[in-house]
Amino acid sequence: MSLGGSYHNPYEVTALQIAAARAQIIFRSRHRRTPQQRLAASDALLEQVERCRLQAGAAVASWVFDQVATLTSSVDPGLRAALGLRKDPDHVGRILFQVQARLMRAAQDERCRGLATVIPLFPAS
To answer: What is the pLDDT of residues 23-40, one digit of tens each?
Structure first.
């Protein structure tokens, strides 16, 4: 961001840069899906796969498979490669369970990330 040419007051330039940085943070936070939100989406997809399995369907619906593929590739490209093009409910369900396991670990890591380390008041002698 080049504000130096149009503004001469360094305080004003700094204030504008801070405002721009805050706007970026707000935009990213609104458009970023947390692991908990992605886990809820995977639960809904797993429910659709189970419905297909209960109806003895040979393949999951195309829209379900597309959403599973999108979610899987955002979590782990290796799992997306393992998903391949097979649409049978058992295979898609197994991949979704692996995706959920990784999302649960990511959610746990995100919760623990904000914790500070404990500094002992009295060092051990």
So the answer is: 888 887 776 778 888 899
Tokens of residue 77, six digits: 């490209």
List of residues 6+ apart from 91 with CB closer than 8 A: 83
| Residue labelled with tokens 């908990």 | 36
* Per-position b or e across 73-102, b if 16+ CB within 10 A of its CB: eebeeebbeebeeebebebbbebbebbbeb
Domain enclosing residue 19, as ranges: 1-32
Residue 15, number of CB atoms within 10 A of its CB: 13
Structurally, the chain folds into a number of domains equal to 2
CB atoms within 10 A of CB 52: 20
